[in-house]
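Friendly challenge for the regulars: who can give me the structure tokens for this chain first? No prize, just bragging rights.
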Amino acid sequence: MEKIDLTKKMSKEEYRTKMERLERELGALQRKCKELGIPVMIAFEGYPAAGKGVQIGALIHALDPRGFEVHAVKKETEEEKMHPFLWRFWTKMPAQGRIALYDTSWYRKVLAQKPDERAFDSILSFEQQITDGGVVLVKLFLAIDQKEQKKRFERLEKKKGTAWRVTDADRRHNKHFAEYEKIYEEMLRKTDTDHAPWHIIESTDRRFATVKIYTIVINALAKGIERATAPVPAKREHSVYIDDRDLKESILSKVDLSLSYQKKEYKKRLKKLQSKIQLLHGELYRKRIPVVLGFEGWDAGGKGGAIKRLTEKMDPRGYTVIPTASPNDQERAHHYLWRFWRAMPKAGHFSIFDRTWYGRVMVERIEGFCTTEEWQRAYKEINDMERDLYDAGAIVMKFWMQIDKDEQERRFKARQENPEKQWKITDEDWRNREKWDQYEEAVNEMLIRTSTPYAPWIVVEGNDKYHARIKVLETVVRALEERLG
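First reply, four minutes later:
Bragging rights claimed.
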């Protein structure tokens, strides 16, 4: 690596003196992070044989083993290959107060002779999202030179018990060291940011590297604790993603809610569309194309009815319907997108969400369950997540089930009068009607800011249930046919 002194060393005496203090400090900071609910992610990257495993072992020596987990990130499993590449890391996110260490990380995607350029954008977005969400992220790059790497490989090969650790890929890496060095330098340059900086660890001398890693991690945790305990400013600046003048136009007010079908026509169309979906579902499975469908809408807007007709003739082994309620304790202990990433479909399967991640910019916004900065930031976070799904080959569509206030009241009363449907209506549903105008404003903003070519919103005229169901099925069929050609 350029401008790095890889000859730095530390004596045993100095090492012991420093480590005695550093281990105490790190243990105390781990306990404080647990108390404050601060999640910590520590990513180890670097040259083969630079000592990532050794340094992870040294770092966890000072930690309470009940509060951390080490993830060895090697080749993707078959399950991981069937998801977007960031899925395997979202599912390995630490809960609040816990520490996750990664022996290599999400950077495997770009550490190839022909790196995936789009993956750089996904990584930058991922790191921005998790650090904005309160994660303390530490990125460590362990550096050695070509001569030192070769010496370490030879040392391993001499011993019968360790020779297996040196692979043909390792030997090629050493032979073409300069080429790989350029790949690493590009990665470091493109992904070194203020919120997620890289720390270069001169790793020729193990003791020097260990002390430097401890010092960096301690400083990062101390800063994270300082941020978590700092007074919240009365007003915080936020980014504006589009011109606010565009938001004054109401999309929902232009919806024609008079559209309807007669029952006979509805049944005829429904039967035909369900047959098509049944066939298309099988073809999507064979071609390993994942599908993500999100349903939002007013209470009693017809989400459940549309989902039922959509899935009625589909193979139940190939889809999952995810009803989204208030987050439980485990979900609240993670980033708000964590529970949705975990439910994303593998290739060839459908994930159908009955309410979605858009709760962040609707109910959480209006009910005060998140800060203004958090819900305004969420528009970009959601767009980036949906782009990652699309880039991984998924069909992504979101449906807003639109009814008017009078129709909602009629449906609420009908539910109350039907013993079999009374469970569907709650006091909270009636209370939410009092905030109709606030929700309408939030929905209009959501539709404008998050309807994209790769993950469009479809507003469904829902006063007539027959029309709503047919429109949903027709839209899904059209999108599946277009993808299959």
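The chain has 19 helices and ten strands. Strands lie at 40-46, 68-72, 99-103, 136-143, 198-202, 291-297, 319-323, 350-354, 395-402, 457-461. Your move, everyone else.
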